[in-house]
Amino acid sequence: MSAFLMPSLGADMEAGTLVEQLKLSGDTVKHGEIIAAIETQKGVIEIEAFQNGILENWLVDIGTQVPVGTPLANIRAVDKPVLSEPKAPKPGEQEVPQPHDPPPAPHLPEEPAPQDPSPQPAGPEFPIPDVPEPEIQLPEDIKVNTATVGQSRPRITPAARRLAAQAGFDLSSLEAQQTGTKITRADIAALVKTPRADPLSDMRGAIAAAMSRSKRDIPHYYLSHQADLTHADAFVTKANANRDPQNRLLLGALFLKAIALAVCKVPEMNGHFEDGQFDPNPAIHTGLAISLRGGGLVAPALLDVATLKLDELMSNMRDLVTRVRAGRFRSRELSNATITLTSLGDRGVDQLYGVIYPPQVAIVGIGTPSLRPWVHEGQVVPRLIADITLAADHRVSDGRRGALFLRTIAENLTTPDAL
Asked: Exposed e or buried b for every residue in 149-180, given b needs 16+ CB within 10 A?
């Protein structure tokens, strides 16, 4: 039997609120399957099972806030038998005493059974009142679907019902009402255009706590290098010539792949520093800094970036940004990042120096690409240039290795066909 714990989803997380239980007691769960959702300052995060097994029972009720590390449920491995009560002996069989059993109790004469009391008149029956649900006052601009009056209510999780109420979404219009499928918060978030955002003060407080810890505990050093993106830009333009807008490749995908390949050459930039030592990670899970529409910033991870082709990486990046801005995360995306990329895109900033997100040891920043005079093949010509910056942990690496890392990223971007 293993306990399923409230996970730690970042250095700034101390507690979370269980808002959905997507599996019931006795249900089979698979490794990586989403079984619950918790709410933090960053939004609602989908939690995945860490093993195959049977969900024995939930230990925390929906709506309860508990600290990181608190057991949420018990999961039993499939090959583990359920503990059962010892079988009673069959009639006529004599129970064999087991070693170390206490001696049998002495036989005592049975007491005579008490006389039945005189029958008492039955008490009055109190019918259970049929209490109607309280009416919800809707804004005048929301119309009630009278065609659905009298139909059964859809099966929906409490978190999904709360999100639907906040967004003014009509639950009676969902097909799940007829099919019997339980509606989750993710279903509602995918249908409403304005999901609830967490209070900005909570988000800012979480960011401030993590960044204060980073600057206090991590000895940062900073480097900057210029990269020629002319070939990379031409590569993207050619790749997008016959593509629909939703399938186009962006420079961001090339940045992610170039960083991942550079990590293969300078592995001390990739991993976690915890308990006084650096733990390098063979997998490269690149955190991508994403600004939220309601304000604030998160940096969930794109997993196994070095192994993905550019189109796969672009598809995963597009999906991640869409889900995050709809308020939906997955737990491993917030806990598994091994290095982070931050960029201000077209904001017109030449350089930005990030603050390392603990327990990571490096963050790469990419400024806005712009045409600049550049010496190319012996001539001064306009080229598309961007400043690449690095903030790294001096406990793990030094400026010489950091410089090699930045130069490798820049070289990778000059040969986009090899990414």
From this structure: eeeeebebbebbbbbbeeeebebeebeebeee
Distance CA 333, CA 340 (A): 12
Instruction: Provide block-wise average pLDDT over 10 residues at a time, the chain (419 residues).
Output: 71 78 88 84 78 88 86 82 49 49 49 44 37 39 42 64 67 57 74 52 74 92 97 96 92 97 97 95 94 80 95 95 82 86 83 93 96 94 96 97 97 96
- In this structure, are residues 225 and 406 in contact, taking their beta carbons and an 8 Å threshold? yes
**Long-range CB contacts (< 8 A, 24+ apart) of 143-146?**
145/170, 145/172, 145/173
Residue 42 is predicted with a pLDDT of 67
Write the burial class of residue 417 (CB in 10 Å: 0-12 exposed, 13-18 middle, 19+ buried).
Answer: exposed
For residue 56, the Cα-to-chain-centroid distance in whole angstroms is 23
For residues 165 and 144, what is the distance between their CA atoms, to the nearest angstrom?
A: 13
CB 299 within 8 A of CB 362: no
> What's the pLDDT score for residue 4?
73
What does the alpha-carbon distance between residue 396 and residue 402 come to, in Å, rounded to a whole number?
Answer: 10
263 by DSSP, 3-state: which? helix
Strands (E), 323-361: 328-330, 339-343
Q: Is the peptide bond before 71 cis (omega within 30 degrees of 0)?
A: no
Rounded to the nearest 5°, which phi and psi values hold at 270?
-125, 110
Position 383 scores a pLDDT of: 97
